[in-house]
Design goal:
3-stranded antiparallel sheet, alpha+beta
Amino acid sequence: MSDKKSHINHLLSDEQKWQHSYEQPISYAPLVQLANSNWVVPQHFLRYKHTLKSVNEVLESIDFSAHFRVLAAQKDEQIYLQVAVLSPDNYKTSSYPGDSKSKKLLFGRRWLVEENLPTSELIQTAFLALKIAREHEVRELLQLTQQHATSTPFNNHHDLPVMAQNPELVKGSCSNTSVNELLKCVVFAGANINLQSHQQIAEQHLYTVELLCNDCQLSEFNNKTISFLTPDSSTNSFLHGFIATLVATSNEYVNEQFKYKGFARFSKHVNVEQIGELSIAMRSPNAVALCSMGKQHANQLNFEIDSSRAPQGCGQAIDGFLAAHGIKQPENAHLYPNYL
């Protein structure tokens, strides 16, 4: 028996392994040998049937900050992820009666999990949920004092319909205040911000600022020096550039610290060219070498996945969307026989 056939028997014929798994290879699924001599069934030849139990099994292999926990729950038949956050009260005032070290338990938005969601995409959904939860915190940590009152102008809770109905209240001309004067009214994570340098480069402005916080729960910001570019020297551009850089800093932290089974998929330490080589190894026709029956089952799997994703009750809206682009039928209209 060839080496490949022995691995096929080991991986695909182990009924006990696959019987209770949320991942099942399709019939005639190909087995690919990687550069390190390991054998795998590529994920696009697997069927997925996630349950609350299987989702929790995946989440147990994720490692991240103790202050953020990705949870799985189920309402009726719908499984979803939600991030639980232990966070200081970002709106606490000096008259707040609680302990300065006290924390609130908060929950982020719900992220739906489809039953046939590939495990890799499930992990990345948790990854994105953590990024968004942290961004929410970052936006509330930047506070601006105006008219003897404090606001968090970049938070996610402003009344957008009111702003849309009254745009003149938020799209007026910018003040002539200097950035140095502005920073006297700005704090991040309860601490001041120091402008270290400002220089014009071509038509852009480069700012370098030092965050003076030293006990922020989002530890990557403590005593952090950051730089960013703005299109002009207005305080409005400065604030927009500043918050964008703060969010990017938080995202970079998640990229490096989020791990699945000890592996930081989005870390800059992962070699991009080798990712490309691995993708080619698992997707190139020569490596996969599907037989005719394998192609038939793979096409059926792709059809089932893609056709199931069409939103119900939106046919008229989709028709209008296509018509606006001068398209009668998209190239893949065969995926939606009862829809288009």
